[in-house]
Design brief:
5 strands
Length: about 140
């Protein structure tokens, strides 16, 4: 990810990052910063994310959320988001990338998912794909 030219479209984005695990939170936040995301809002669980979204004080352009969290799960957050913001890009982070998970996430309109543990490049490429941004060419050796 180093030395990559930032896409100026990311500077205008507001991303709601919902994660209860400190390490995954820092890693995802680092990826968003490296992409040049202009504004990152943090929530520790789905309940806090719903309060942030429902307050109407902030409009997110993308939600990146963990699946397994206390109070309100990522799947329940996704369901809530789809009742109001049907086209809001939503990427799920999960340690449970099973067939059942994938099916449940797709049925509820997830735009993408990344299995934990994830690398910065995996999350970066998923975000780029959601916004139809081509990753930079890597020089061949």
């Amino acid at each position: 990810m180093t030395g990559q030219k930032l896409d100026p479209r990311f500077a205008k984005l507001t991303v709601l990052l919902v994660e209860d695990d400190g390490f995954a939170l820092k890693l995802a936040q680092s990826v968003l910063r490296n992409l040049g995301v202009g504004h990152i809002i943090l929530a520790r669980d789905g309940a806090e994310a719903i309060r942030i979204l429902d307050s109407k004080a902030t409009k997110a352009d993308l939600i990146v959320s963990d699946w397994n969290m206390p109070n309100v799960s990522g799947l329940d957050l996704l369901r809530h988001v789809r009742t109001t913001w049907q086209h809001m890009p939503f990427i799920m982070l999960t340690g449970r990338a099973t067939e059942d998970f994938v099916l449940a996430a797709k049925e509820n309109g997830v735009n993408g998912y990344v299995a934990k543990p994830f690398s910065p490049d995996q999350l970066m490429r998923k975000i780029q794909a959601v916004f139809n941004v081509k990753p930079p060419e890597t020089p061949s050796a």
